């Protein structure tokens, strides 16, 4: 028997058919993996990277095999290729004339090979060709394709080459988005490619082993292809049926879900706690920022706060299970929904805002003005849940930048017509009892959550009085928005506070009614706290213009901004029953009836949707590792399905033969079992020879005895007895043990999964003659 080309170790290239199949299936497998990379980049530059990297990796492995390079030689060749093509493909902004790499480009390339993977999971997707983030895809496709071809052509077990793309695929998914883009299609495509590749490899091995019998094996090759296709179709059908019964979640846990983000808002002080500082006399008239091109009525958001611990409102983070705390780096430009209009707003900061970067609308792109703009641009991170931005390291005074944004709707919403949405926000730790006591008579006779919220806002603006307590002519007003301060606000007569207290109180009241809510700190176009001062630049916001409002999640309109701060008017003396009336539109909510029904029991909204994650009791990284391991194990088990099927078919055939109906058939079946075992071991048993000729080809004396016993069972006039059949099968077991003991572990494994003996019955003619003689 001639050796298989898979046993060669880089001596020469295999024959053209094997080489062609290796290249074809390698490129097909890594093309499927490139599809898995696509949601991360979604840019033509990535298509160019994949189109160059995969063929280049295959070509390098073929050259290394043809020239008998050692493994380290191939590694050096791949490294050299990466240096040559890396900058033009993956760092095009650092390539002179688009081809020649600049020194800075080479440094970025080397850095991205090591650090690009971590940068990739801390940036908003898709990343396009931003900076050097194409490098991870280039490395995976170039190195992966080269390694696959090298193992297939040079390893003793070339079939193990399929393990490289099988392991690489789930790793690529782990770097992808949380949303499931192609949940089944790419997985089935890759699985089909790998199974067909294994079938083709068996075909090549049979062709080389059975010289001159290529035509006889064509039917077997067709059956192998059909079996592989059937396995994929059955697995895909079963998976589709299971998905139809139990739909998978729209989001999955990937590395970016659990990795530490570049900015942790919980590690910074709450900007709402520092609200009163903007109204100190020495600071109130200073320019906080200027905004040119701001649409009418548009709001400039400094920070969005949705977590309350009884002391301050803050931005949610991983410690409070909120997506509002996950800030990621922003690539060159974010996607714009079809039909959306984009506005350009120029902003200039008159003072430092800490890490918070004032923004407006839904961010599309940000352009930093001035010196060192690229380095500053790299520090911009963004949260798409709250549409708020941060400059890691701090946003200094004098910073100028341009925002391309999708403006938010500015039309007023009738709160009485909306209902609570299902947005996820952190659960409130504590709500003051005095707030519930204040809230109960306000909403007890009103039907509908929206109408109740409208009644609360109306009461705040009617009963509340605005005072920052910083000027001598203002009524005293204590800063802060802790539980104690809010207790004082709702129990004091008159109710005196500023945007800090009213926004915090309104947000908690909205939660009690059933609306997910959050507090927004910022500036509103067209709303100025002028108080008679001379006019300033229309595009400029002073410190005293800083305000706060709330946003509530609704089914009808999504997040809706609600202004809750009462207008400025004279504050009556403390404990006075008189209030200063103001002229306001007729409220949409009717006053309560004289004989009001008992108040409904209102439960806080159960909006902490991430409690299910805590029930697992597993660390997120451990859970991610288990999920990736489970996916890899599932692919391996699915790939082993044909092997398990072969073992089951052979076991069933052996059991059926051992328990045949009559002794003669059992003796003949024992002989057939020995011949099949020898065939699976690779022994060339003549298919048309006599039993003695076959026994001679097998070469064991005990097999020759079994051949004579089988001849006697077929041609002797007397029927053999059951004891003789039992002795024959004992001899068969002894022969099989001899085969097993004389073989290596690899040879035993190859014989166990061989399908040679399943393609025909070696003694079908003798059995038919036996039946004819009996008839």
Automatic annotation (TrEMBL):
<dbReference type="Pfam" id="PF11992">
    <property type="entry name" value="TgpA_N"/>
</dbReference>
<feature type="region of interest" description="Disordered">
    <location>
        <begin position="753"/>
        <end position="775"/>
    </location>
</feature>
<feature type="transmembrane region" description="Helical">
    <location>
        <begin position="44"/>
        <end position="64"/>
    </location>
</feature>
<feature type="domain" description="Protein-glutamine gamma-glutamyltransferase-like C-terminal">
    <location>
        <begin position="671"/>
        <end position="733"/>
    </location>
</feature>
<feature type="domain" description="Protein-glutamine gamma-glutamyltransferase TgpA N-terminal">
    <location>
        <begin position="29"/>
        <end position="406"/>
    </location>
</feature>
<keyword id="KW-0472">Membrane</keyword>
<dbReference type="Pfam" id="PF01841">
    <property type="entry name" value="Transglut_core"/>
</dbReference>
<feature type="compositionally biased region" description="Pro residues">
    <location>
        <begin position="588"/>
        <end position="602"/>
    </location>
</feature>
<dbReference type="Pfam" id="PF13559">
    <property type="entry name" value="DUF4129"/>
</dbReference>
<feature type="transmembrane region" description="Helical">
    <location>
        <begin position="133"/>
        <end position="152"/>
    </location>
</feature>
<keyword id="KW-1133">Transmembrane helix</keyword>
<dbReference type="InterPro" id="IPR025403">
    <property type="entry name" value="TgpA-like_C"/>
</dbReference>
<feature type="transmembrane region" description="Helical">
    <location>
        <begin position="12"/>
        <end position="38"/>
    </location>
</feature>
<dbReference type="InterPro" id="IPR038765">
    <property type="entry name" value="Papain-like_cys_pep_sf"/>
</dbReference>
<feature type="region of interest" description="Disordered">
    <location>
        <begin position="566"/>
        <end position="614"/>
    </location>
</feature>
<feature type="transmembrane region" description="Helical">
    <location>
        <begin position="71"/>
        <end position="91"/>
    </location>
</feature>
<feature type="transmembrane region" description="Helical">
    <location>
        <begin position="222"/>
        <end position="246"/>
    </location>
</feature>
<protein>
    <submittedName>
        <fullName>Transglutaminase superfamily protein</fullName>
    </submittedName>
</protein>
<feature type="transmembrane region" description="Helical">
    <location>
        <begin position="621"/>
        <end position="648"/>
    </location>
</feature>
<dbReference type="InterPro" id="IPR002931">
    <property type="entry name" value="Transglutaminase-like"/>
</dbReference>
<dbReference type="InterPro" id="IPR021878">
    <property type="entry name" value="TgpA_N"/>
</dbReference>
<feature type="transmembrane region" description="Helical">
    <location>
        <begin position="182"/>
        <end position="201"/>
    </location>
</feature>
<dbReference type="InterPro" id="IPR052901">
    <property type="entry name" value="Bact_TGase-like"/>
</dbReference>
<keyword id="KW-0812">Transmembrane</keyword>
<feature type="domain" description="Transglutaminase-like">
    <location>
        <begin position="484"/>
        <end position="563"/>
    </location>
</feature>
<feature type="transmembrane region" description="Helical">
    <location>
        <begin position="159"/>
        <end position="176"/>
    </location>
</feature>
